[in-house]
Specification:
mainly beta; seven-stranded mixed sheet; four-stranded antiparallel sheet; globular
Length: 132
């Protein structure tokens, strides 16, 4: 089992920055990768970014590419999402999710890394609100 706790959300003006954190505990030695997803009111959950835990390969949604940076600190079992140049349309609840190493490898497929079903464990989310 892996437990995930997100933090760092809040209210920020358009153009501002926030850094989200996702702390993993439990069977963290079995982490294969981490993804960030978001869900705005009335909309479906969408992929934001993902990172492989070992090699550090990263994947981004087109809507955040160039503005968001995903990273991880293996020693702290923590993942991060640095969000810059925030826009009102970035307003959502942000969730982190973990895929375990015991699962089939995702390789370098952006498609597979972007799918919610590729992840076994999810945090409860943190609210990000961007005012115009």
């Amino acid at each position: 089992q892996v437990q995930l706790v997100e933090s760092g959300g809040g209210l920020v003006q358009a153009g501002g920055s926030l850094r989200l954190s996702c702390a993993a505990s439990g069977r963290t030695f079995s982490v294969y990768g981490m993804g960030w997803f978001r869900q705005a009111p009335g909309k479906e959950r969408e992929f934001v970014a993902a990172i492989s835990w070992s090699g550090g390969s990263t994947y981004y949604a087109d809507s955040v590419k160039g503005r968001f940076i995903i990273s991880r600190d293996n020693a702290k079992n923590t993942g991060y999402l640095q969000m810059n140049s925030l826009k009102p349309e970035d307003t959502a609840i942000y969730y982190c999710a973990i895929r375990q190493t015991s699962s089939v490898s995702l390789g370098s497929s952006w498609y597979l890394w972007s799918k919610g079903r590729s992840y076994e464990y999810w945090g409860r989310g943190t609210q990000v609100t961007v005012s115009s």
